[in-house]
Each structure stands twice: as C-alpha cells, then as structure tokens.
Amino acid sequence: xxxxxxxxTTEEFLALPETDTTYEFVDNQAIAKxxxxxxxxxxxxxxxxLIAAWxxxxxxxxxxxxxxxxxxxxxxIPVPDLVYVSFAQLSEDWIADEPCPVPPTLxxxxxxxxxxxxxxxxxxxxxxxADVKRVWIIDPKAKxxxxxxxDAAPETIKGAxxxxxxxxxxxxxxxxxxxxxxxxx
Length: 185
Hints:
Blueprint: H1 10-14, E1 23-26, E2 29-32, H2 38-54, E3 59-63, E4 69-71, E5 74-76, E6 82-86, E7 106-110, H3 117-129, E8 134-139, E9 144-148, E10 155-158, H4 175-181
Parallel strand pairs: 7-8
Antiparallel strand pairs: 1-2, 3-6, 4-5, 6-7, 8-9, 9-10
C-alpha cells in the first residue's frame, strides 16, 4: 500500500482533489487502497445487486463510499468495498456529496491480492469498535464469507449455507450463490 509521508488534518484530507486512486484516512495520513482486480470487482458488483434489491425501501448500499469514524480516538475515514446504511440510521431524504456521516449497519471488505485475512480481521475489529453493526470479509480464494459481530465470535460460512442475520431481515443468499453469480465457480 502506498502511504503519504505528510501528516494531514481531517479537513485537509477531505479537501484533497479526486484522483484515479482511492485513499483512506488512517492515523492522519492518506493511504492508497489496493487496486481491485477481476475477482474483487465481480464479487463487489454481485453483492451490490443482491443487497440493493433487498434494501430498496430499507436503506442504501454504495460501493467505495468513505465513512467518517473514529479509530483509537482519532478521525478515521476508511473506504469499505460496500457499505449498507439503514434509513433508521441515515434518513431517506439525506443527500450530500460527502463521506457517510454515521457508522453503517454493514461494512463489507473483499480480500484483494496482496491483502491478508488477518489484516482485514484487524480492520473488522476497528469497524466494530467504531459502532459498525456488522462486518463481512469475503475471501475469493477460499470462497467464504466471514461475519463479524460486536458481541460474538466471528462466523465463517461457505458452500450452500445461507447467510441469515437478524439486523438484515429477509436478506438470504449463500456464498455458493454469490460466487456463481460472480462467475467464479
């Protein structure tokens, strides 16, 4: 990952011009995100379709939407691969061209080449500590989906085991279905 050596304030980070590279704000520095590859992009697209169809009247799902959070007492602006925010958290009439101003219901990270499950597990813990209600880590190689909870051990599902979660009622699919839809079987 590419890191700037320059220390930035949150306001300076948010004022940076848009470029072809996506940056996250971590420990007062702009950190370049991994560039997605085919597997990552395919999974991200299919997950967006699945969740968008489910959440039509419940909230919004967005890819690569920055989120304003706190990490170790400092401003932290990660850019999850997908974010779902319920209308109970952020009203349906909210509209602004800015990072998500509330901790989302769900943050999803897809492991890219060069990233490890361990690295994203640490990031999942940071999300949960910042009041994100659920975090999913998708592993394209292992074809698994790991769900992180704020008050329970993570759960990894694979194959035809359906995903079910009380905070995402009626959203049901299996990792197998996801990877088939993404053309990765």
